[in-house]
Specification:
This protein has about 190 residues and is α+β, with helices and mostly antiparallel strands. Helices cover about 35% and strands about 25% of the residues.
């Protein structure tokens, strides 16, 4: 009888080791996914630009919307009223490349400095900001991030940004804001009038 139990014990042990191996593999895979999904606190945007489906730039009261088409190419959408009929957008390759380059650069924006909690936004031009940037994930209506752009910092190369609903007031390189505003100006002037 003892001779018959040994193979059964070894078989049960092998099955248990296989189960432990599968569990460890799945835990390791989940841990890698969690690390990859973790937000880099030094970055302005909470996700890579590849996960963004639309960006709105409101400047001086005018909203400019950029979206991706079904193939992932960027186009200037502009602003449409609710009474407007359904419409199509043609993606121009040169304009799409320019938008892509500007947004890839913006997606790499690093936070230079975090101001202490409770900092008065009025001191940094953030109570009535001239420029707002709103980002959306693909196929989502709720904004993923909203950024109010304030004054130029005393160092003359940084801008104050209020990460609305987020980490508070930070500074970022001013050229990132300039690049977005230059993009808006370029695509707006090139967009056909309707």
């Amino acid at each position: 009888m003892r001779g018959r139990r040994a193979p059964v014990v070894w078989m049960v042990l092998a099955v248990l080791l296989a189960i432990v191996g599968v569990i460890e593999y799945h835990d390791s895979k989940a841990s890698r996914s969690a690390r990859a999904a973790r937000v880099d606190e030094s970055m302005l945007m909470p996700v890579p630009i590849d996960q963004v489906g639309a960006i709105e730039v409101a400047d001086a009261g005018t909203l400019h919307r950029f979206e991706r088409d079904a193939g992932g190419a960027w186009f200037y959408h502009g602003v449409h009223t609710g009474t407007e009929a359904a419409h199509e957008h043609a993606t121009d390759a040169a304009t799409a490349a320019r938008i892509e380059a500007a947004f890839r650069a913006f997606g790499r924006t690093r936070i230079e400095r975090r101001l202490p909690p409770g900092t008065d936004p009025r001191r940094h031009g953030l109570t009535s900001p001239r420029t707002l940037v709103i980002i959306y994930r693909r196929n989502e209506r709720q904004p993923l991030g909203q950024y109010a752009v304030g004054d130029v910092a005393p160092d003359t190369v940084s801008r104050y940004v209020d990460m609305v609903g987020g980490a508070g007031i930070v500074t970022i390189p001013g050229y990132q804001v300039d690049n977005l505003l230059n993009l808006v100006s370029a695509v707006r002037s090139a967009a056909p009038t309707r």
